[in-house]
Amino acid sequence: MLVAAAVCPCPPLLVPDVAGGAASEMEPARAACYDALGVLAAARPDRLYVLGPAEQSGRGPHPQGTRGSFAGFGVPLEVSLGKGDPARRELPPSLAVGAWLLERTDWTGSPVEGLGIGEPLAGPRCQETGRELAASADRVALLVMGDGSNCRTLKAPGYFDDRAAAFDSEAARVLGAADVEGILALDEELAYDLKAAGRSSWQTLAGAGEGAGLAGRLLYDEAPYGVGYIVASWS
Question: pTM for the whole thing?
Answer without folding.
Answer: 0.97
